[in-house]
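[Meeting: bench + compute handoff]

Bench side (C.D.) handed over the final construct sequence. Compute side (W.E.) agreed to return the predicted structure before the next meeting so the bench team could plan truncations. Sequence as handed over:
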Amino acid sequence: MSRLLELAALGARETMLAQAMNSNNLANASTPGFRKDLMTYTGTTRVEGIQSGVDLGAGAVQGTGNTLDVAISGDGYFAIQTPEGGEAYSRRGDFRVDAQGQLKDGVGNPILGDGGPIALPPYSDLVIGADGTISIRPLGEQSNALQAVDRLRLVNVGDQALEKGFDGYLRLPQGQTLDPDGAVKVVSGALESSNVNPVESMVRMIDLARKFESHVKMMSTDEKNRTSLNQIMRFS
């Protein structure tokens, strides 16, 4: 394989990977609290390859008026129980209560509180305080009869590195977990948007498509050059 063909094929592969990541970002532009993936190509050999990461920049906070919508104010994350039973972190706050009274996020994973997954008894009103305390008015009780039932497990990562899984949740390396941080605050009745800029992602999609086309043309040119060289060698 010629050096030109090798580099062109490598570039085409990395461009396809970048395009897949960019497409996933664009598909999640409206997902609350989503953190976009970053990908950079660091060299021109198989060894150097690519590097990927996560943009942890905050999205915009918008009011919804829904008491089960919660946004983190400043730094911090919600603690989520994954389907495997582990702990992960997210800024997604579009909560809901299922038929069993469990508080879950928008994709159905349990929200963790001080004592594990949060379960709520039947209620007529619900209030989530700035510190994450969940209070309810049980069915049939007076309007001022609020009872605290649990508190959202809110954590602050600080300088620790987070890894993003295929499910979109963030985790500490090697299954480590974080202790609750009482300094993390939330805003009830609001949601944090994704930090994906759709216009920026569309522009990047077009740019990557052009780069892929260039790599394919390079491979085609290399093939034509080798064909011409073989013909010359046959006549010599």
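W.E. noted at the follow-up: The first helix runs from residue 3 to 27. C.D. will use this when planning the next construct.
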